[in-house]
């Protein structure tokens, strides 16, 4: 509790050229994996080498002959798999890393404490450093380009720090180091509250569900909400204002499972949205299912309550702790809304240091300023846009900056139009949601930071789905020749024979794995979500080799965990978690690397718009739950019909669930003249049709894909 971590990784990989020419266009659609002599297989990266050949980069873990498979959409390219020999000197050996300097025994606050790491004789491997203690120490790393690195850390509080230093996934000698840091602290004050949270009663199909959030200072007119059921049906949900600034989304679910609730303000997801909402028993509770969002986590003003929401419904029962830390004491207030959400507000008496950007000094004249002609839509990357600010007589300095989704900041260009009006020009460099901070005498003006959507495509995180066995229970490095216990056969066979080839042994309790492949992968389906930035991060007890390749329906992510334990996989689209993210994945198996602190691996891809093959572009049909056998029909028009007259029958589908009524009439020479269906309410329909040829007709009545009892009907005209 109260300990803070920071970490940094420096890659160093062996690069090997592969024979044959492969063009640049191909390199994006290829993926590669390397299998070590022991059978362990991991993803590796393809890159263009300076001589124009294609090469792979990987971390050698074993001596001997390795096989590199390079595939395009699952098929080996020419000459694949390639053979590569790894010599003794190339395998990363943490024991041969030399560390010099006293900074791993003792350090001082507010200065850079430096030590040197020499990996010249240690082969290839990535270096990762994490430091944990009373403050989040700033880490800097300078590569001396000669196989040595200078690493420094700068803590702001005294006390004991733990430093993990790993090379090629193994601790170097002496790691983890305990460092005693002396010196002045920063007089930061910490205020903490703890509350026990009960589990919310289970919601059932057909009962009214509600999700509440507080968002002061907006008009409900600009709020919209939709709910997507597990079957993929998206419907609008109702939003109402419960009390000042507190809103509730209401919907009635028709099926069990995880629903997605999207709440948008002016077409942009509010902080916390898209929400996960489980109907029926919770699948997986726990801390990773707690969400928080609101203005009090972004900005604040001295002496005024800073407010935010915390949603714990999906996490189940537990103890919720909230602490606020800063240069002065904060008063924390907590309100439980009894529906799995609660509302926190804190008041700070003195402003924060200027670079922390959280608490600004008291308002002063800033409240007089107003913004107009703000571009709500149509803003594009790399094209300038502007808005106006009216000072209304306030005296002082105006400044503005734009913060992109990836976190880079850029100044806005401010010009005075007349004595009371400024024009603010800005140029976004990427697509996605940007924040524009407008300050007057160092204080945010009302409504700042302003959120603005850049780019025309609707990259909607709520439309992205991830599936695959890499999000379920996994094993560390499955290898060729592994024995599989009998009780797991079923699970293995369910995963499909293309993944595993098993040879059951005569003594019956095990099978031998004949061929290994990387089992831990998952698909991120971006088919209905436009183009955006996909960021996948895996946090766990070891670093993982991972890669991400484009496939037809989206992007496939592969990774190889080296240490058993819990891994948390976050998948974000344009900065927002997708449905179900973060995923908690439990890994079993043996240690293939040494444990250290939590380690983070990530990959970021700019996606292109995807259209799925089997679904044509356009609306997705909902998953109907219906029973055509419960539909009844009656009327003369199902037995006998007359020329040029309105022939009629009725269809009653009130007890048959939900679906679409299809009626077709086919004649001896040609289709019928006209068919007219009128819905009389409650799934009762009246059907009229007109024919102009004598003879035998066929009337087909279907409820969804299925014929109703009696259909097709034979009708004499």
UniProtKB/TrEMBL annotation:
SUPFAM superfamilies in alphabetical order: E set domains
Filamin-type repeats, residues: 1-86, 89-181, 179-279, 282-454, 456-587, 623-717
Chain segments annotated as transmembrane: none
Domain of life: Eukaryota
Keywords: Repeat
Keyword Repeat: yes
Keyword Repeat: yes
A Pfam family assignment: Filamin
InterPro entries referenced in this protein's UniProt entry, alphabetically: Filamin, Filamin/ABP280_repeat-like, Filamin/ABP280_rpt, Ig-like_fold, Ig_E-set
Gene3D superfamilies per UniProt: Immunoglobulins (2.60.40.10)
Family under the similarity heading: Belongs to the filamin family.
Protein name in UniProt: Filamin C
Taxonomic source organism: Timema podura
Source taxonomy: Eukaryota, Metazoa, Ecdysozoa, Arthropoda, Hexapoda
